[in-house]
Amino acid sequence: MSDTGRISNEAVPGSEGDHITFCRICSVLCGFVATVRDGVVTDMRGDVANPYSRGHHCVKGPAILDVTYDSDRVLYPLKRTGAPGEFSRVSWDDALADIADSTKRHTATRAEVAGAISAPLLSLYDRIRTQTGSTGAAMLKARQCQGCRIELYGNELSAVRNADPHEVVRCENCGRILVRTAESGL
Ligand code: SF4
Ligand SMILES: [Zn+2]
């Protein structure tokens, strides 16, 4: 504690005592005080001195301790070896080499596929991809955009349903290019 009664916010990460911190789970960023004992966080409580949240928070904030110390938490690289749920532990070097190899293969495949797409469409795809931070297109499956999981209905659904098969249609919610297939539910 400082002489003003406030807990020091200069505590070294992991050191014993109380640390001023905040919850990263959602955009509200509630303030918390975390207590560390023997290298383990033993308590998380709302920081009443935080000028923004003033000690208020939801149940998820303190529950992060259950996530942090859950016995099923993945703490090292795992490689899938068979059916879903079947994994074996691999070294970081092997995991990184595997990722580099697969990135190289995907980059080559993408270049091949992109070469067959018109420049304006590819440019649109890349722009949306940058905006979404993931993909620029998504499958429309059973009337649901698989990018944002929003179901299309009303005018939006009618517009997509009536669009020419070669027309580029986009999800009104996430902006992704919608890929129509026989499973689109149109
Ligand atoms: S405590 Fe709840 S409301 Fe506050 S940042 Fe965390 S998840 Fe969001
Ligand atoms: Zn969408």
If you compute it from the alpha carbons, what radius of gyration comes out, rounded to the nearest whole angstrom? 24 Å
Net shape: extended
Percent helix range: 25-40%
Tell me about the largest β-sheet.
3 strands, antiparallel
> What's the number of helices?
4
**Unreliable sequence segments:** none
Number of strands: 8
- Summarize model confidence as the mean pLDDT: 92
Concise summary:
This protein has 186 residues and is α+β, with helices and mostly antiparallel strands. The protein has 3 domains: 17-68, Phosphorylase Kinase, domain 1 (2-Layer Sandwich), CATH 3.30.200; 78-114; 119-180, no CATH class. Helices cover 30% and strands 20% of the residues.
Folded structure, characterized:
- The protein is an alpha+beta fold and 186 residues long.
- It is 30% helix and 20% strand.
- It is built from four helices and eight strands.
- The protein has a three-stranded antiparallel sheet, covered by helices on one side. The protein has a three-stranded mixed sheet with strand order 7-6-8. A two-stranded antiparallel sheet has the order 4-5.
- The radius of gyration is 24 Å and the shape is extended.
- 12% of the residues are buried.
- The mean pLDDT is 92.
- Bound molecules: iron/sulfur cluster (SF4) and zinc ion.
- The site of iron/sulfur cluster has 10 residues, from helix 1.
